[in-house]
Amino acid sequence: MKHSKTYNFFSELSQIVFGIVLASISLKAFLLPNGFLDGGVTGIALLVNRLTGIDISIALVLLSIPFLIIGYYTVSKRIVVKSILSILGLAFLIQFGNYGIITEDKLLISIFGGLSLGAGIGIAIRNGSVLDGSEILGIYLNDKFGLSIGKVILMFNIVLFSITALVISVEIALYSILTYIVTAKVTDLTIEGFEDFIGVTIVSNDYAEIKHAIMTELGVGLTTYKGSKGFGSTGAQQDFDIIHTIINRIDIKKMHRIIEEIDDKAFIIEFDVNNVKGGVLRHYLDKKKGKTLGKI
Would the pTM count as exceeding 0.70? Predict the structure, then answer.
């Protein structure tokens, strides 16, 4: 089990580093040299750089701080810590990375710059990290007001690109919108939907301990139903609880770790959930305020 946890840690770390490298290539080899912008906090940092000359790496770190503070009270601290390290890593590569300018064709910049950036963001998210604070803002507003994460990010970027059109140029704004669309689509393809949910069914003899760990460490609601197992019609029967819960895709690796620490032989079924309504759907609960956990 210790070997498995070590392998998972280095697997996540290496994938996050790869995602950061892809994002930095997009910014240094495509977007920055040609004056293009992306959406989210990265786009704001690029806009600030264009208007004030402040170093993009410094702007990215400073602008990410408010979103990371929101994340501290919204998502798990593990995600926040990994996101801080990821953003610092991206800022470092933006500052010191030297990839050269790959192309000056505006259409190619929008497509391949967005593709590389979207893949980098998606890989980071799949491994429990965030390179752009706008996703954390989306999670926070969803938790507080029930707004769709996708709609929050869309409105965020509408404002950003409108400002770009006014203070820089309409052409840059239009190409930046194209870059953002490519980035968003590739991100979705990479992580199979940041806002998507996964249904999880868990069968284990240690169901009571797993149930308690999921509720306390992930903060999600869950449903249990009675099951029994044995060998044939006359075999020994054993009653136990089958656990069913729905979590955000970004937390699936954390759930795997929780279950493996308790029962590494647990039987787990995962399935895509197209639509969810009602109940405690997200783990982003502020336990310090004494919120109670409900059932799905």
Answer: no
Residues 256 and 124 in one domain: no
Chain center to CA of 288: 23
Domain limit, last residue, from 160, 191, 222: 191
- β-partners of residue 269 are 201
The whole-angstrom separation of Cα 95 and Cα 108 is: 24
Measured on CA atoms in the order 141, 143, 144, 145, is the torsion positive or negative? positive
Q: Which domain holds residue 113?
A: 2-191
Question: Which single residue is written with the structure tokens 């040299």?
Answer: 33
Split the chain (296 residues) into runs of 10 and give each run's mean pLDDT.
69 92 92 84 87 89 90 82 92 88 89 91 86 77 70 81 90 89 82 68 89 84 78 62 83 86 89 64 40 38
* Domain match, 48 and 130 both: yes
